């Protein structure tokens, strides 16, 4: 199965899991939908579905990006992942990525006090307490070592809260900057992200903006 088909399979599975959880009496799934921009051009979408069932939380994510230059396909990115929390603590993370033809498969899981990382079939040594650098919840924003969600590489980051801002509707936003091996800015409203900003390898500004 190709990575793009596998990502589609992941996404369909996410929707099925969310529907089954709701049917079984779990809290309704929270769906966060973002448009991805490169400058003023919309280049893709990013969807996160958060489902809570008792003490267990599933976070399903799918990102699809296509950059065209003079009507030619210049870059394609497809990412699908599922993260599991148990009792508010990280339990597992799996992802598949197509980064413009470079493919990755990642599995991370907590085993007692240790963390096991299997990236593209190879086990990566990890220190206890590392978590994926998915940055989907304000309560999980902290400095330290995180697992890169595509490749499984261990990345050192510093998380700094820059302060409170207001959106166009006057609603309170909390602005954070992540620096170090991963660089980006994130704005949260009521604990959930509403905007991401990062600089791509070609120097362009990429923003994901909540609908």
What does this entry look like structurally?
The structure is a single chain. With 211 residues, this protein is mainly β. The protein has one domain (3-210). 10% of the residues lie in helices and 61% in strands. The protein has one helix spanning 3-23; strands at residues 30-38, 41-53, 56-69, 72-86, 89-99, 102-111, 114-119, 122-124, 131-132, 144-147, 154-166, 172-180, 184-189, 192-199, 205-210. The protein starts with a helix and ends with a strand. The model is unreliable at 6-11 (pLDDT under 50).
Contiguous low-pLDDT stretches (5 residues minimum) are: 6-11
Main pleated sheet: 15 strands, mixed
Q: How many helices?
A: 1
Label the structural class.
mainly beta
Strand order of the largest sheet: 8-7-6-5-4-3-2-1-15-14-13-12-11-10-9
Number of strands: 15
The helicity comes to: under 10%
Radius of gyration: 17 Å
Mean pLDDT: 89
**Can you write the helix and strand succession as a string?**
HEEEEEEEEEEEEEEE
For the record, the count of structural domains works out to: 1
Gross morphology? globular
In terms of DSSP E residues, the strand content is over 45%
The rounded distance between the terminal residues' Cα atoms is 32 Å
